[in-house]
Records
---
Amino acid sequence: MSTDPEKSPALPDSLWAATAAPAPLCPPLSEDRSVELCVVGGGFTGLSAAYHAAEAGAEVALVEAAEPGWGAAGRNGGQVIPGFKLDPDDLERRFGAERGRRMVDFSATAPDLVFGLVAKHGIDCGARRNGWVQAVHGRAALALEEDRVRQWRARGAALEMLDRDQIEATLGTREYIAGLLDPRGGWLQPLSFARGLARAAQGAGVSLHGLSPATRIDHSADGWKIATPAGNLTAKQVLICTNAYTNKLWPRLSRSLIPVTSFQVATEPLSDELRSRIMPKGHAGSDTRRLLRYFCVTPEGRLVVGGRGHARASESRELYAHIVSALHRLYPETAGARLDYFWSGRVVVTLDHLPKICELGPGIWSGGGYNGRGVAMATATGQLLAKCAGGASTDRLPLPPTKPQPLPFHSLRAPAIGVAVGWKRLLDAWEARSR
Ligand SMILES: Cc1cc2nc3c(=O)[nH]c(=O)nc-3n(C[C@H](O)[C@H](O)[C@H](O)COP(=O)(O)OP(=O)(O)OC[C@H]3O[C@@H](n4cnc5c(N)ncnc54)[C@H](O)[C@@H]3O)c2cc1C
């Protein structure tokens, strides 16, 4: 798997690339221009930021190294997940009642933004808002799940706890002992959503340029100068939205990020009989493992299962062995099904499990670090970044800007992630014995 959109701008051979709505025209930047705002990176963060800034009246250009949705936005599991990884009580304890509540509200309403944009712009991405399921893999996770449901219900969200029979009926697997159903979440075809957002941004007036990697960003008398191979932009403000694909463009930012690889496989379309048993009501979900597994059935009836794995970025089939074995363990009846697609992508995990907006200098910000929950959170964070660029007071934002914190020993992250992955897998397997 290439992690460099500049060297390998073709989309991966994924199920989403094969079934997505057509891509909008995004000609490369081929002249020198001045704009108010330059957005770098065309995933959910950058597209949403560009769209919201243009809607608010700014003149915006977005430069993308490959094409909109090339990165994680066009490769993910499509789950629209409400809430951060940290539960509401934790957030209010850590950040105080007022800021904690702002963070809770932001994370709870992020799916509203996604489904609202889909409805407003008629985005053809198979979106369904029938709830997001989190399945419990062992007894140790059960009490946490029950408490999570209690916390959200205390804040007015209609989450339900599912018992063993109900989770089995919902997902069609006997692998889990319980689960939650969160009606705020759902599923969509991620590359189609990214392309729909790109069209919405163009409709709002954004100049969207594909095959236009930002190769340098320099401070200048007029703001910032952003170089691309065939044209330069001068902009008063810049938003760097390259997340897990951040390269040497802003070294202090890339040294603060921990990108990890997530892998997915998709079966051939399942028989009607299997479709009536495996996620029959079209729910998408994941589980409570540390190295979680996530799953959905697509509108064409393909079963897609994904999960984290090696730190290495490679397309070698052996790196998919753990996902194929998870698929067959969850759904033994698919053991004979052909596997048609294998693909992977990168996500950023953060040490405190929370996304980050960073102020990199005067008039330049970055956003990212969604810990595998970026469909909703990146779209919502893009909206916050547009507010930063629009001059809003940032103190009261749910994610107030911080400075990037380069990680000590960043160059050793790959072996460290390898050790952490092995350890987490062991703990998950141990906990799953107590079912
Ligand atoms: C396999 C997988 C499964 C996932 N499943 C889910 C899920 O089910 N639900 C969920 O909520 N989240 C999921 N995620 C996470 C989610 O996809 C991400 O959090 C989200 O897409 C991040 O969006 P983004 O816009 O910040 O980054 P990206 O979508 O990665 O976009 C970054 C963009 O920046 C571009 N770029 C990089 N460098 C430059 C440069 N120098 N100049 C110009 N452009 C540049 C890249 O080409 C890329 O298009 C998953 C991620 C992966 C990889």
---
Amino acid sequence: MSKNQIVILGGGTGGTMTANRLRRRFDADQAEIHVVDRDDRHVYQPGLIFVPFGLASIEEIVRPRRHQFWAGVTFHENEVAEVWIDRNEVLLDDRTVLPYDVLVVASGVRLQPEETDGMTGPGWNERVFTFYDPEGARGLQAALDRFDGGRLVVNLVDMPIKCPIAPLEFAFLADWFLRERGLRARTELLFATPLDGAFTKPVASERLAGLLAEKEIELVTEFNAGEVDGAGGKLGSYDGRELEFDLLVTVPLHGGAAYLERSPGLADALGFVPVDMHTLQTPTKANIFALGDATDLPTSKAGSVTHFEAEVLTENIAHFLAGEELVGTFDGHANCFIETGFHKALLIDFNYVTEPLTGHFPTAFGLPLLRESRLNHLGKLMFQWVYWHALLPGREIPGFGPRMPTAGKRRTPVHA
Ligand SMILES: Cc1cc2nc3c(=O)[nH]c(=O)nc-3n(C[C@H](O)[C@H](O)[C@H](O)COP(=O)(O)OP(=O)(O)OC[C@H]3O[C@@H](n4cnc5c(N)ncnc54)[C@H](O)[C@@H]3O)c2cc1C
């Protein structure tokens, strides 16, 4: 095989795993591997949920990006400006042109708070916050420290968002935090969502709605937020409803990276990249693949999904370069711990066709599914170590792979 040039756009979860897996797969004389990212701060994003409550600091969850790559991966600290798909080239912000044989889009999502009327106006980062980026999470920590009771509204503006369970986790942890501080009795806690239930999938939605009710968190459904009045403390929906707040915790609209809009043929109208749901190859060009939050796939935008995709993607890049048929083994597998406070967590595991069910993961003797337990909470805490030391370097974890395990799952309703 002659030496191939592989360019990966984005050095977050998916880009780093893919680069490291490819580096282990190909010798240096077989492939050059380039990763482009705009900064040198790799954020362990699941850790952001703990920052507002003082349970983690930004310093504990951020590491230098360039140190996460195996030797032999070339890191470019640059903004991607444009992709010229007809010429197989990427243009960077310093006018560097990177030619490629294979391109991997791993640029995640872009938070777009400015797309909701008033959100970034008066009150932004004073009484309206998002914990979806490090700066917002840190600001929210200070605001919660000052919070002395009132109305706290948690809202996700619209789907899709990354980690769709994170806003629920925030609500559960806020309930715990306020109880510990003796503020719960004088705080109304609301969870407002555009969905018709607490979550997207029926069995999990019912279980999570039950937990919200147990914790006296009011669930407001089909609430499509259209306007924020930060100064007046009001969140308005398109159907004319209004929620008053003293503190608004929002998950803003998500879209794809801006360079995708300047690269015709790569992304859909929302900026997400269409790919084959099993092979991760784009329909636009056979030598372009995508993974992680950047894709339009009908599974969760989650780090676990990105990890499972990275395994299949690496295989398929090797097949593509060898002129072989691709494997279609990605089944939409997603796996997420859901922190519920009081040192407990739930676990959900699902794929394109099987919704989150009760039972155990990965076998009948594993972690409990859709049931609060301390074991799951410990699993969530341990996961950060696993992320830095096994997942990012591209090491295999036995029993934790792209195909969703079915051995421990029960097909009975939650309340049975
Ligand atoms: C609060 C929160 C909690 C979460 N909790 C969980 C959880 O418990 N479990 C779970 O599985 N997942 C969780 N996630 C989701 C998980 O972090 C993401 O799904 C995962 O990181 C996606 O990986 P990615 O590679 O697609 O994107 P990212 O890891 O976001 O990487 C994208 C990279 O592309 C770079 N980039 C974008 N545009 C450009 C450009 N133009 N030029 C250069 N670089 C660019 C960015 O700088 C970034 O580094 C959580 C996310 C959040 C925000």
